[in-house]
Design a protein that fits this description.
mainly beta; Barwin-like endoglucanases; 9-stranded mixed beta sheet; 2 helices; 9% helix
């Protein structure tokens, strides 16, 4: 049996931009993506701590070291610049591998700099 388990999480990211004219997605600093193992165009779920919105989209890599977290297209309506969000990425694992698996959790400061990796 396959189970859906948290694979990676970006905790307490701050939305830096909002681009309604773009066709869709969330742009995330490439350095942050590399630390979590989240790939370009991979599906993510986002939870907005400021307004309670929860939504899914896909990831586009942003400029390395920029701290960019940009809501694009329709997702731009789900949050505003300055909002705190949590980004979740799930994967499917066989029962036997779940017990040994640990998700990558990256904690960010208010400027989207990595402060801790668990």
């Amino acid at each position: 049996m396959l189970r859906c388990i948290l694979r990676a999480k970006i905790h307490m990211a701050t939305v830096t931009e909002s681009n309604l004219a773009y066709e869709g997605s969330i742009t995330i600093d490439e350095d942050i993506l590399k630390k979590t193992g989240i790939l370009p165009y991979e599906q993510v779920m986002i939870s907005n701590l400021n307004n309670g919105e929860r939504f899914e989209t896909y990831v586009i890599p942003g400029k390395k070291g920029s701290g960019m977290i940009c809501l694009n297209g329709p997702t731009a309506r789900k949050g505003a610049v300055g909002d705190k969000i949590i980004i979740f990425c799930y994967g499917y694992f066989e029962d036997g591998k779940i017990r040994r698996f640990k998700p990558k959790i990256v904690l960010l400061d208010s400027k989207n700099k990595i402060v801790k990796i668990r």
